[in-house]
Amino acid sequence: MQTTLGIERRMMTLDRFIDEQERGFELATGEFSQILRDIVLAAKVIHREINRAGLTDILGAAGGANVHAEQVQKLDLYANELFKQSLETGGLVAALVSEEEQEPTVVNPSGRYVVVFDPLDGSSNIDVNVPVGSIFAVYRKLGSRFGPDDYLRKGSEQLAAGYVVYGSSTILVYSTGNGVNGFTLDSSIGEFVLSHPNIKIPAVSAYYSFNDAELHRFSSRLQAYIHDLRSRAATGESPIKPRYVGSLVSDFHRNLMKGGIFMYPGTSKKPEGKLRLLYECAPMAFIVEQAGGVATDGVQRLLDVRADHAHKRIPFFAGSPDEMAIVERFLKA
To answer: In whole angstroms, what is the distance from residue 106 CA to residue 36 CA?
Structure first.
């Protein structure tokens, strides 16, 4: 709320919000505050570079492929290094698991936490000015020594998860298991400010998002659902409309705020899907559930699925509860 002078009566910065929320929270020692500050620092620098990307030599492909045989963009490498450098300096993190690297990076063997992240989701869209994002999640290390069991976990074991969307504004959305809140970067003061408190996904979907070019490779059950979906939209039975930009963070964020369903299923060509469980789907599933939505792999609750390796792929369905109930009926028919 603003006064007649245009001054906000109570500007809640991210730091102040964390301080208030940490009272009674598991990470009340201030450790989560520091981890989130380290992530935010990386996000601020990525925001800056994205906004001046067309003026510097940071656009386009870097000339190699990552562990998924995908063409690496220059900003992928830059963002990955930013996340690593920022999180390594805090001393709280035992290891980092990145989309861009085959194996986890051990940072501090005595650290108490493991951070998994996709440093720059949708980076191939940078050249055409489509919003991109970063995704992250925090786990508590289980034992005194770091090992695979510390990150090959169910999504339900996440202590916190979030994403940053770099678009017309830069917005951080995160949850520590007690609701979802969004913060917009105010570049004039260099701070993330609470802009979307207590986010709740609308029960009724306004949008559906999937890669229509892959429709012929979907299962017959899923094709039947999409036919039903489009029939309901055509007859006016449902207000749902198609929206798909091809950047997970962008599509997910729109549907979280407006109501919708995001689908990246397995196909006849890639039965396991394309998206990675650990640092893409599980963090988003954590957020959508905390906002009152639903996330599955088409068969079961996604947060109940355990990763068996760092880059495990999985089908992903997430969104508003009403539409998710309908697609589940078709998939389980």
So the answer is: 19
